Amino acid sequence: MIPVRIRSRFLVGLTLAAALLAGTATPAAAAPVVLSSGHVDVIDVDYAGGALAVNLLDDTVTPSVERNPADVVLRVPATAKLTVPGGSAWSFLGTGGQAWVLPQSNTAGLLWAGWNTTEVPSGVFQNNRVTFKLTNVTGPAGFSVYTVSGGTPTVLFDSGNGLPDSLNVNRNTHAHVNWGFDAAGTYTVTFEVTAKLASNGATITSGAKAWTFEVLP
């Protein structure tokens, strides 16, 4: 039998060791926020303190919340699946004549996904614009971003013809576009936002930011 005094010290030691281990344990990662319908600005650009900041503006809650894209999953439900129109202008989209699309118009049950540069002040950047650069896409098939006017698509980004792709976006822009996915599965889409300072021509960058889209079959 362990003497009482020694046993007490032994138990105190165990208690302290357990407390230290508890204090150094890695906390469990928070579950991502899953968004599946409503208005979001996928790329929300701000400039303050000499830095470009890029977040996701979540308008599905009140008040709106700016979120780190790494903390969000954007869900594309099966109801987003459509038949791709015929004609060579649509050859960038879909496989087997079908694709999943988050549309540029507000549609019940789907995300209304756009981008926003309204927080970029005037006169800070050359030509009052920033550049969106799609640098990488991982997923089961192709990813594209496009607009449609008069039934004709204009492709802004397309992973199927090589990356990076770049698009100049004026400050004070709030726009909605179509987000296309050629197959069901999980996509990680990486963008970088850059701009040239009007004062000295130096290029500043947001750094690479990744968004996750979950496309349901």
Which terms summarize this structure?
17 strands, five-stranded mixed β-sheet, disordered N terminus, 217 residues, mainly beta, single chain
Low-pLDDT regions: 1-24
Distance between the termini: 65 Å
Counting DSSP H or I runs of 4 or more residues, the number of helices is: 1
- Tell me the number of strands: 17
Taken from the alpha-carbon principal axes, the silhouette is globular
InterPro entries: Surface-anchored_actinobac
Signal peptide: 1-30
Keywords: Signal
Protein name: Surface-anchored protein
In short:
The chain has one helix spanning 4-24, and strands spanning 33-35, 38-48, 51-58, 65-67, 72-76, 81-83, 98-102, 111-119, 129-138, 143-149, 152-158, 165-170, 174-176, 178-181, 185-196, 203-205, 209-215. It is mainly β and 217 residues long.
3D architecture notes:
By secondary structure, the chain is mainly β. The chain is built from 1 helix and 17 strands. The strands form 3 sheets. Strands 1, 5, 9, 12, 15, 16 and 17 form a 7-stranded mixed sheet that branches. The protein has a 5-stranded mixed sheet with strand order 4-3-2-8-13, with no helix packed on it. Strands 6-7-14-10-11 form a 5-stranded antiparallel sheet, with no helix packed on it. A hairpin with a 6-residue loop joins strand 15 and strand 16 (203-205). The radius of gyration is 23 Å and the shape is globular. Residues 1-30 form the signal peptide. Keywords: Signal. It comes from Verrucosispora sioxanthis.
